[in-house]
Write a structure and sequence with these properties.
Elements: E1 9-13, H1 19-29, H2 35-47, E2 58-63, E3 66-80, E4 83-95, H3 104-110, E5 116-120, H4 128-133, E6 137-146, E7 157-161, H5 174-185, E8 189-195, E9 198-209, E10 214-222, H6 225-230, H7 232-241, E11 246-251, E12 260-272, H8 286-290
Parallel strand pairs: 4-5, 10-11
Antiparallel strand pairs: 1-2, 2-3, 3-4, 5-12, 6-11, 6-12, 7-8, 8-9, 9-10
Helix pairs in contact: 1-2
Length: 292
């Protein structure tokens, strides 16, 4: 009498030797993204610093030694109310449709750290009920597509491109300086608005709108989206000189004084964990590392 051997399921951290196969799996799972996109994504994850003891890439799901699923995780150290905590951007979760019954160990491994705040910033619409059933809460329900250059001038406010060699005084923290430097290195634009000797930082990353035709910027860091609405005019005119007319930003509703269109239920963001993310902070997220 023969007995069929039960399938061997393994969920483990992704290692360097897994990368080539996972690029193929991700290309299959996300056909709108090219193989080159995923290769660059893996390169970005490979070279960045991560807080210990968290995995560098995420987790791979194997069935009898064959890769059937993947979840990419981007861990970073954040500060909220003067206290450091760990945030993890859950990105690019895919399991071969033939093996979806084996998917639960993958998400269980991904969110097992109770002291980590997990965010999902690009969930497909059809996954919203699933994400909510997993205990995630929507913290941002829409976005604004703004034409900031139409905003009014602001007395005593000046806009400058961020210069890492310049001393902006104590109102710009070391953490914010590091954010502006890092996101400039990722190909973004960093600006400082000075008002009454106070430095107010903003960071943007390029993205394309209207099927990739219209060059647009994504606001990826500010202290408060109301700051952007207030200084939209001078910031927008500075951005326009760089060839960017439109800015997309997360928002819970229209912002008074900001010229643009609020679109509810576009760009929903979810979180699970001890620290509710702040709207207007997408630092070190998949959009920054992989591209919007």
């Amino acid at each position: 009498m023969t007995h069929d051997k039960p399938p061997q399921i393994c969920c483990r951290p992704i290692g360097d030797a897994d990368i080539a196969g996972l690029i193929e799996l991700l290309t299959k799972g996300f056909p709108k993204r090219t193989r080159g996109y995923w290769a660059r994504a893996m390169q970005q994850l490979a070279k960045r610093e991560i807080p210990a003891p968290y995995p560098r890439f995420g987790y791979v799901l194997e069935l009898d030694g064959t890769q059937i699923g993947v979840i990419l995780l981007i861990f970073s150290t954040q500060n909220a109310r003067g206290k450091a905590h760990i945030r993890c951007n859950i990105s690019s979760w895919y399991v071969d449709p033939r093996y979806r019954a084996y998917a639960s160990p993958l998400i269980a491994a991904a969110v097992r750290h109770k002291d980590v705040t997990y965010v999902n910033i690009s969930p497909a619409v059809h996954t919203w009920p699933v994400i909510e059933a997993q205990g995630f809460t929507c913290y941002c329900s829409g976005e604004i597509v703004a034409f900031p250059a139409l905003g009014p001038p602001v007395a005593n406010a000046c806009v400058h491109e961020f210069d890492s060699r310049r001393d902006y005084g104590p109102t710009l923290s070391e953490e914010e300086r590091d954010i502006l430097v890092a996101h400039g290195d990722y190909g973004g634009l960093a600006y400082i608005v000075t008002e009454n000797r106070k430095a107010i930082p903003f960071a943007f990353l390029p993205r394309r709108s209207l099927r990739g035709i219209v060059p647009t910027l994504q606001l990826v860091y500010c202290r408060d989206v109301r700051d952007f609405a207030r200084f939209a005019g001078p910031i927008g005119r500075a951005l326009m000189r760089r060839g960017s007319l439109f800015v997309r930003l997360d928002a819970a509703g229209p912002l008074p004084g900001l010229v643009g269109r609020y679109i509810p239920d576009r760009g929903r963001r979810y979180f699970k964990g001890p620290e509710r993310p702040r709207i207007g902070d997408l630092t070190f997220s998949e959009g920054v590392l992989f591209g919007f």
